[in-house]
Amino acid sequence: KNGQDKLRESQRAWIKFRDAEFISIENMYHQMATMYIPIRSRDRADIVKQRALQLKSYYEESNE
Question: d(Cα 46, Cα 24) in Å, to the nearest integer?
Answer without folding.
Answer: 14
